[in-house]
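Structure, all two chains, one model.
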Amino acid sequence: MSADNITAGAAPLLELRDVHTYYGQIHALKGLNLTVNPGEIVALIGGNGAGKTTTLKTVSGMMKPKQGQVIYQGQNISGIPSHTIMQRSMSHVPEGRRIFPQLTVRENLEVGAFTITNRKLIEQRVQEGFALFPRLKERETQLGGTMSGGEQQMLAIARALMVSPKLLLLDEPSMGLSPLFVEAIFDIVERLNREHGTTILLVEQNANMALAIAQRAYVLQTGEIRLSGNAADIASDESVRKAYLGDE
Amino acid sequence: MSAFRLHNTGDQVDLQTVMTILLQVLVGGLSLGVLYAIVALGYTMVYGVLQLINFAHSEVFITGGIVGYFVFHALQDSSMNGYLKLVLACLAAMIVSGALNVVIERLAYRPLRGAQRLVPLITAIGVSLILQDTLKFVVGLTGMFDLSVTLPKGFTSPLTKFAGIDITSLNLQVKDVILLVVATLMLIGLNLLVNHTRLGRAIRAVAHDRQTAGLMGIDSNRIISLTFLIGGALGGLGGVMYAMKYQALNAYSGMAPGMKAFSAAVLGGIGSIPGAMLGGIVLGWVETLLGVVSLFSALPGLHWLSYIKAEYKDLGGFLALILILFIKPTGLLGKSSTEKV
């Protein structure tokens, strides 16, 4: 099953070439090759410790690969600090949401727009965020840390969207949320992709959900890619169903 | 404290005298308190972004005082307006102290980013000692900078009238009011900066979560440098205010007020900016009150107050610190670090 045939010809938005990343002594990514084409939702699934989060962190510059290249918009960005990478219309919603609990909802959004200097544009984006998540508008002046997990996830996504990113890295958006919130969050992710053409690299524990909205997927196991291809094909793959989709 | 007088006729102390003393404490304590507050801000802001107690801050602070002394000294015979001299002294001190603080961070603390917390802490003590010895070269081993002659003449005049009301009894000098006004303006300015500007939001974001701030496109090293610049500049300004208030400086003059400002920061809740302001003012009041409280021993039933000598006033601040931390370990406005994840 070759994923690359599907969009052959178009220049990928993101490409990982033989990426090796270490957590201290632990070899977390062992020569990862992965592409994300413009306009796609690509799901990264796999068990705990497979290297999903590490992959996202390596892309956004939170971790430096020891070997290999991360090519974003045609440029090698491996080793560049995250604050520089994030100025190139990429956003990363980190694992555990990591909103700023002592800042109000509005301030969280404004920090998300840090790289924008045009005040009008910032205000416009804040309003767009409120339109996307009306719940946040209700909580505008509330401290981020006082909200529920689902609301915090909404805030984390809205904050990441402030820069209107070409590439959105989403790490476990469903973690710890009630099914209702999970549904709402996935709806939004799908809408972002469909209506705004935002390219999304999605890491999910909830593989069923992820494969339902993704076009393509990679299955990670202990730092290596086990499988890749159409999301639908992956979803129907016997071994995947057994290992990650809860089939006996 | 000799500045305070109580007209005591036998066992009778009239109410008006008591009120006057309390008013003196209120105003005098406030002017001392805002001084502690602006120095405390330097500790608390740095702690906020790095969880580091910058022990060198007391030297950064007194360096500002020494720079202020040099400016006043150089302009001693100039016919320049006294307030203009003060502005120049403050600006020079803020620039030098701010820059010094930035250099300290760059050379001593940044290379230790990621090291265990004890390592930069010990380094901070080392930097403090190095600066103290360096200042000895400037001031002289037993030297003392005397500002009583160089300070603009009007600054030490007693203040007799305010808005038409006779305030002679408050025992204020012009410099006390300058200190109160300048420090208060600084506190308001800093509050606006931190709470209502893009830079302020970035500082708070970095203080809370450096990595995630990076994901927002914020260069945390730059924000940390700016925080040291702001904290150092406030310290430098505090140094000039201190020099103006006490009119004498040596290489060690930063230690005691630095320690008190640090206590003020802890008292208010280290890492909290409003906490540092409140802590400074509380400390200023407690200290000033303790300095005069023995005067009330003439009141019926309060004879025991005569044992609390004015010399114990420094003790008061630290006792208040222990007491408050005993009741609220995170300080007055400190937040406990539990939050929803």
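Residues 219 and 227 of chain A are 5 Å apart (CA to CA).
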